[in-house]
Structures are given as structure tokens and as C-alpha cells.
């Protein structure tokens, strides 16, 4: 039918004439209550956002001369964070003379990657920025929670 006929019918029913596909030949129009349609679309998008999980980046800090107990405690904390679906930035801080030995920090981060194999994967390699060396760890797909 012509757009004028469709517009007349929609006015009789007290509804709106909404253009669905303007590029189609002939263009497609729908008679509907646009306010209700818009409200339902907003409701659906709110529900979709509510069910989403946003991934956070959490930071765990180490020192080059970290004790075994402290290391294990932080490693377990990283495992828990990664199993919840978040990412972890493991950082080694260097102060003063420790800056002369960045290999200590690299060993700690590599040990951490080896210990977390099967639980987390490294998204970046250990990199030095100023007085910090860091690596970003994310959960392995299919790992147990």
C-alpha cells in the first residue's frame, strides 16, 4: 500500500508509522506503538548490561627479595583473582641498589608464570618501566573455577 494509506490507517488506530527498512524496494514500514517499542528495547539492553561481567585489572606487588611464604601467599591470591575472571598485573618494585639487578625481578615473574601454568597465561612478557617490572596475567579458557 502507499505510505499515505498506511499513515491514514495508523492515525485511525492511534499508532505510529515506523520505517523499518528504507533501502528496500519498496521501503518497509510498520504500524506500531513506537513508545512501547522503544521502552522494551531499553529494558532489553538494561538486562543485557546487568548480566555482563566487566573484567577488572588488579595489581599484586612483589619485591626482588620476596620471602617464600609471601610469594606463595600472593601466588594463591593471584590464582583466586584469575579464577574469578579478572586479570592481574604482577609488579616487582626496585629501590636503590636493587635497580642494578633486574634479573632478580625477571626470575620472580618467570617463576610466577611457571607456577601458574594451566591456571593463567601471560598476556605480556616481563617488561621494565622505570623502577618497576610487570607482567599481565589472564585466566586460561577452560581452567577449573
Task: Characterize the structure shown.
Helix content is 40%, strand content 26%. With 145 residues, it is of the alpha+beta class. Strand 1 and strand 2 (28-32) form a beta hairpin. Strands 3, 4, 5, 6 and 7 form a five-stranded mixed β-sheet that branches. It has two domains: 3-50, Roll (Ubiquitin-like (UB roll)); 57-139, Translation Initiation Factor IF3, CATH 3.30.110.10. It has four helices and seven strands; from the N terminus they run H-E-E-H-E-H-E-H-E-E-E.
Q: Keyphrases for this structure?
A:
alpha+beta; Ubiquitin-like (UB roll); 2 domains; 4 helices; 26% strand; rod-shaped
Number of strands: 7
Unreliable spans are none
Radius of gyration: 28 Å
Query: What name is given to the CATH topology of the largest domain?
Result: Translation Initiation Factor IF3
Oligomer: single chain
* pLDDT averaged over residues: 88
Write down the overall geometry.
Answer: rod-shaped
Q: Calculate the terminal CA-CA distance, rounded to whole Å.
A: 58 Å
Annotate the secondary structure layout.
Layout: H1 3-13, E1 16-21, E2 28-32, H2 34-50, E3 57-62, H3 68-83, E4 87-93, H4 102-115, E5 120-122, E6 127-129, E7 132-139
Parallel strand pairs: 3-4
Antiparallel strand pairs: 1-2, 4-7, 5-7, 6-7
What is the compact description of this entry?
The protein has 145 residues and is α+β, with helices and mostly antiparallel strands. It is built from 4 helices and 7 strands; from the N terminus they run αββαβαβαβββ.
Amino acid at each position: 500500500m502507499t505510505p499515505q494509506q498506511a499513515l491514514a490507517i495508523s492515525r485511525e488506530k492511534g499508532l505510529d508509522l515506523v520505517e523499518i527498512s528504507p533501502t528496500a524496494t519498496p521501503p518497509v514500514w510498520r504500524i506500531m506503538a513506537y513508545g512501547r517499542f522503544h521502552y522494551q528495547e531499553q529494558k532489553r539492553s538494561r538486562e543485557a548490561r546487568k548480566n555482563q561481567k566487566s573484567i577488572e585489572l588488579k595489581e599484586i606487588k612483589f619485591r626482588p627479595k620476596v620471602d617464600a611464604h609471601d610469594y606463595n601467599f600472593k601466588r594463591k591470591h593471584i590464582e583466586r583473582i584469575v579464577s574469578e575472571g579478572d586479570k592481574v598485573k604482577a609488579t616487582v618494585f626496585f629501590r636503590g641498589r636493587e635497580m642494578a639487578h633486574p634479573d632478580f625481578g625477571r626470575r620472580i615473574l618467570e617463576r610466577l608464570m611457571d607456577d601458574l601454568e594451566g591456571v593463567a597465561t601471560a598476556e605480556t612478557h616481563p617488561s621494565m618501566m622505570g623502577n618497576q617490572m610487570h607482567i599481565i596475567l589472564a585466566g586460561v579458557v577452560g581452567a577449573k573455577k
